[in-house]
Every structure is written in structure tokens, then in C-alpha cells.
Amino acid sequence: MFTNKEGCTVYERTVHNRSPAFFRHETGAVYCEEKTSQESGSDRTPKSEIFISIPESSVEYVPKVGDKIVCGIIPDEKPPETAFTVMSVSNFCYGSPAVRHLEVTAK
After folding, report:
1. Does the CA dihedral 79-49-1-100 come out positive or negative?
2. Is 45 a member of any domain?
3. Number of domains the chain is built from
4. How far is it, in rounded angstroms, from Cα 97 to Cα 54?
5. pLDDT of residue 46
6. Are 71 and 48 within 8 A, CB to CB?
7. Is residue 2 part of a domain?
8. What is the DSSP secondary-structure string of 49-86?
9. pTM (2 decimals)?
């Protein structure tokens, strides 16, 4: 499977004493594609979205909807302001071992 980043950092979202807390996880090599578009209308604010394909061999933690994710390995214990929120996770861990992967979409 084609990869273009050394890995990504996933911040698992949990709730501790009624406030959100994050636990940091790293993956192995991933394919990361970032897309920026612009809203049509009066505000015209830019929208960013990210697509990440994680090979099965690189999966140590399976992201969930609501987690934060960053392309690249980040040493910070808290998610940075540039982190994306996971919107969907699709599991494609079947078929040939060379093509098994997870697909993550985040905004």
C-alpha cells in the first residue's frame, strides 16, 4: 500500500470528571491527503478536510468518531489547534494482506 507520511497522531477523546480528556496514540506509515475548499455564500470561509488511509500493519489504535487526529508524529500530550476531528472511520481489513486498511475522514 502506498504511504506518504511517517505516521499520524490520534488523540483518543474520553470524559474525565465531566471534562474532555485526551490520550495520545501513534500509528505507523500512512497515506494522508488534505483538501481545502471555500464555502459559497457571503462568508466564504475556507473549509479543510483530511483523508487518511492507515494500513492494517500500522494500526495500533482504531480511531473513533469524535477523536482528534493530526498527520505526522506530534510529541504534544494535548491535541494542537490544527488537529482535525474524526468524522468517519471505515474498516477495509479484508481481502489480500497487501490492501487491508482503515479509512479515516476528518474535518
Report:
1. positive
2. yes
3. 1
4. 13
5. 67
6. no
7. no
8. EEEEEEEGGG-SS---TT-EEEEB----SS--TTPEEE
9. 0.85
